[in-house]
Amino acid sequence: MKNKFNFKIVGSGPTGLLLSIALSKFDCNIFLTDLLTKDRLIDKDKTYAITHSTRKILSKFRLWKKLEPFLSGFDTLSISDSVTSAFTNLSTSDLDDDISSSKHIGWVVKHSDLMNVFFQEIDNYENIFFMNPQSLLRKKILFDYQFFATGANSLDKKVLNFFNIKKSYSQSCLTFKVCIRGHCEKRAYEIFRKEGPLALLPLEKNLYQVIWTSSTLKAIERLNFDKNFLMDNLSTILPDEFKLDQIIGEFNIFPVSLSLNLPALNFKKFVFVGDAFHTFHPVGGQGLNTCWRDVNTIYDLFNKNNAITKMQLISFKFKYFSSRILDIIFTIFITDSLISIFANRNVFLFPIRKFSFLLLNKFLFTRKLVLNQMTKSLIYSSIK
Q1: Where are the bilayer-spanning segments (predicted)?
Q2: How far apart are CA 72 and CA 186, in angstroms?
Q3: Which residues form the domain of 42?
Q4: Interval 101-131: pLDDT, tens
Q5: pTM for the whole thing?
Q6: Residue 247 counted as domain residue
Q7: Rounded to 5 degrees, what angle do the CA atoms 241, 244, 247 make?
Q8: How many Cα atoms within 13 Å fall on the side-chain side of residue 230?
Q9: Which domain CATH number covers 358?
């Protein structure tokens, strides 16, 4: 242990866990820490959309096959605009040839299933140590580098970093699961509305995850609704063929914001990863996928010379930021533009909204452009 690098990862959510697995491939000790216990980290009623870029990253770290039994794939994406009544359906035939063979546009996974697979994986590594902060503090370890994967509301950002660019949408997402009849199996939905988008992600048969964006005040109001009243309210928004049976499980609510944490202009050995580094509007389901692309970049930078050196660690922060910034800025631009154009009743934007759907329905290349960017990202071809 004396000759190995000691890395500390603060935050043991999906990003921190994947980072620990990626770094375990090198000659180092990884100390993974969190304020929550393993059981509490696993037991959260959340759902994530997974893209083809993520499939490639998980395959790279030999996790895809282990996670695959818990994935729900969808082969159609329905996009509609409730204000202009325009709509389109994107399918696997609109994907590039190199990914269309998977027969899925994307996948959906429950948080608990994902975390169970990841925690089982880290148990296989002798150089990953999961512990609470107090136990780690008592060890008095000198860390060669620290990675903060502490989420969008990380207090560490205020203490350790230089400048945080942030935009509040004054919106929140209400999420819960519903049983639905009359839907198309293996189809995901993105419904643009004046108050914000509503997404439906297919899980098991007849079970969907609802991600309902609206003003924070309206989201809190809906959170306090009687379940039957909320179902009636949701029924007025969903496509006519949908029949709601019941709401399943817990309600969750989280604020929506756009942020980018710029690195401090010093050579202190720490970086922010995932939501602690950047956040986006959840439209398009890019959140976790972008976090895991951070992890992939960290691995590739260390793997460039097949070994980690002290010299690498000195300049690592700036190489990491410069490697990630294009993908992050592009994702910010796309998600923010979608909300600016489609989440309002501005009559001057109606022609743009109508024309956008006209292009999608009329021309194959526009569908391919939109769908492949959503599923592959800018860095897909660079993922080895």
Answers
A1: none
A2: 8
A3: 5-166+257-382
A4: 889 999 999 999 999 999 999 999 999 999 9
A5: 0.93
A6: no
A7: 150
A8: 21
A9: 3.50.50.60
Burial tier of 252 (Cβ tally within 10 Å: 0-12, 13-18, 19+):
middle
* Torsion 320-325-326-331 (CA) sign: positive
CA distance 136 to 32: 9
The residue written with tokens 């809190």 in the block is: 220
Tens-place pLDDT, residues 2-59: 468 999 999 999 999 999 999 999 989 999 999 999 999 999 888 999 999 999 999 9
Contact 143, 8 (CB under 8 A): yes
- 367 found inside a domain: yes
Q: Residue 3 has what pLDDT?
A: 64
Q: Inter-axis angle of helices 287-303 and 14-23, to 10 degrees? A: 20
Angle between helices 14-23 and 111-122 (to 10 degrees): 30
Residue 98 inside a domain? The answer is: yes
User: Of 298, 300, 299, 294, which is closest to residue 278 (Cα–Cα)?
Assistant: 294
- Number of domains, the chain: 1
- The residue whose two tokens read 């959260």 is 44
Quick one: tokens of 86? Answer: 């325009």
